[in-house]
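Bumping with the actual sequence this time:
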Amino acid sequence: MTTSIADRQREATDQSRLIIGLLVALYWVFCTFAVSDKMLGEPDMWWHIRTGQWIWEHKAVPTTDPFSYTFAGHPWIAKEWLSQVLYYGAYQLAGWNGVLALGALALGLAALALYMFVSEDLFPSLAAALVLCGVFLASPSITVRPHLLTLPIFVLWTHQLFKASRAGRAPNYLWLLVLVLWANLHAAFTFGFVIAFFAFLDYVENSRLKDRKGLLAWVGFLVLCPVVTLIHPYTYHAMLATWLVVGPNEAVPLIDEWKPFDAQTQVVYAVSILGLVFAALASGFRLGMARALFLMVVAFLFLTHVRYSFYLFPILSLIVAPDMAAQFTRFATSSWRMQPLDRFDRFISTRFRPLLATVAAGFLLTFAWGSAWLKAAPPEYIAATAAFDYVKSHRLTGHVMNFYNFGGPMVFHDIPTFIDGRVEQLFLGNFIKTYAWGPDTEQAMADTLKQYDVRWTMMPPDDKRTALLDKMPGWKRVYADANAVIHQRQDAPAP
């Protein structure tokens, strides 16, 4: 094969990779809009947007709680302040459609980057299948929240560091700027330290400590990782906030996404994990010790908290792809490039520009549909639009006792909350255990209502506290629909 033919072959295969990668990204962008109820079905997103508004209006970040009455003035930091400002800006531009579009953009970029990186080692169709499966398995943890904006950064950071370790060199120190951005977007930036540490171990395993200069450069990089994250409005407090979640926190066991993996109810995960283990054992696949240990750590985090599916499954293909290509050369991109172009590759090569324009038009139409015509909105079991309209029209005032999932919308509507989703920093002590889903007896309910001078309540129809309030003297059901029931104290001001 002459040089000119080889160059044309490489150009054609790169064109195929790009078109397939863009189609993978377009698929996940479309899915984000298509399942908008699921993507916006997170009550915390409401208070994230309101926090972004608070920051924008005050030109500062909060240091005490401005949104609840039970913990008003207690220390609290908006550690994901940049994501919150971005989501607020998206909401101001296009309402919930804008919020959804921002999340779709982040997911699409992450899927594109992940595919392009994996397809550097594995041929396009296999890379696409692995990426699609990986993102699908992570999808229960993929909702429009601050953490979604960090998914492209997570993919980029992991790829660059392990790519450097495999090449036997230290990463470029400019990549530390990516970590600074991650730190200001979401508190999980400390996971970036874990990635850097295992990439360093991978470098040590590959270089066998023969390159002293490279070793010192890696050590310097590791030292600077936590240092650069101090470029944050809250400096080291943002780093400490991670410990409040992964450390001893009584709120964590009460939140579904922080619960451990359950093979009896999460069958897809169980089958997928067992299938991967079987495939590795049956094929004789081997992975470097550092990378294997890294995957074991992330798998342990997933087994402890299902939320970590967000990290485990997308990253799996990225970590194993180089070794798969080396051990099973028929799957390698390098082998694929040496083969004559098949019908699909020739089709893309001869029509690359029209195809690229068509895919670009697909993105434009999808974002136009999702941003302007879809009329996206959070599900009503969280939004409770009619109930909040009643609160506003009847001017209900005074302290409210609210259902946990109504806390985010209440912050959004400028109603001081009894409890809301900021439980990793606030509502601690015995408060979260007592009031997340309780109190559950009439006497305990009466004592709580008196202690906090509650004037009205807002609970779901099937909540046990709704039934208690229906029977309590001095309380009257004033509003009810399929999503919320409002009780008002009878000595409260009449509507």
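The tokens above came from a reply further down the thread. The chain has a mean pLDDT of 91.
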